[in-house]
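Minutes, project check-in
Item: structure for the 162-residue chain
Input as provided by the requester:
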Amino acid sequence: MILAVGALVPIAWRFDLFGVRSLSPFASVASVFDMPLGYPGYSWDRDGKPFGREELVTAAGPDHCQWGSATLLTIGWPPGSPLGPGSGLRIYIRDPNGVIGTSFRELLELHATLPSDARSTGYRHGPLEVFVSPSDQDRAIYLVAPSSAERWPRMDPLRLCA
């Protein structure tokens, strides 16, 4: 029994089974995204209502590009808009290891302070919330947890891997 529990704990942590990393009231942005989930990533709600993957996706980058340790936040723009062909989607990057590019690592702020004009988008995953700042939204987006805030740089222009 102890061996089974001992084996289950690392698996539950890695794959966020039962929300052990992301739904805890003590979750931080780092606890959720240091080991990002592959697509389709986490489920989010907007203004308290769940939705599919049509507005916001947070998932690990593709492994075939060696981007798997980075998190890509893809959001319809402006927030609340659907993702899809011809939409104004934006991608923001959490890449502390610089696997997508050193500029994303350098522009990432793991201990950010929200700007005074930051506003909630209404998107939540447990205790995590997505904020935008009108003075900064073309460059970054903010992920906020009760114990932390991070500023993720925007991928502009969009970059794909082959």
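Outcome recorded: The longest strand covers residues 119-125.
No further action items on this chain.
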